[in-house]
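Standup notes
- DV: blocked on the single-chain target, sequence here:
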Amino acid sequence: MIQYKITDLPEIAIIGKEGLCTKEKNVVQDLWKQANSNFSDVADIGMKNTDGSYVGFWGAMSDETMSFMPWTDGFSRGLYLAGVEAYEDAPVPDGWTKWVMPARRYLVTEVTSESYKETFRNVIDTLIPDLGMKLAGAVCDFTDPSTGQNKLFFPVE
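- DV (later): unblocked, structure below
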């Protein structure tokens, strides 16, 4: 049984490196390499907790129309933004992109790199329908830097 929680989040601004993923070319790892190797560009504008640690790192996703709807082609084609959570009014350095994800209700579950694909499919194919819900947007990855824990955020209604 997948452990999950339902949470409502306000708009979230993310500044990161953007690219288009397809079945033929998944650019996610390349985007994270770009973001990590140039992190000093955004280190001062990333949102921080009171202890000075970053609030979080997002692998934000959207369909190609930037409507924050699910990826197409069997969840294999869409836009990905590898970045840090930031304040909405934060300036965007050259070569970086800012997205503001809409406020939404999410089904959230912890995930590991080894369990990612299986967890993703189980939540989409079984858990969400079993709860009488439907997927309402693109799924996003989240890493909590204070714990290193990775989570998947599934927009639901």
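- Follow-up: The chain has two helices and eight strands.
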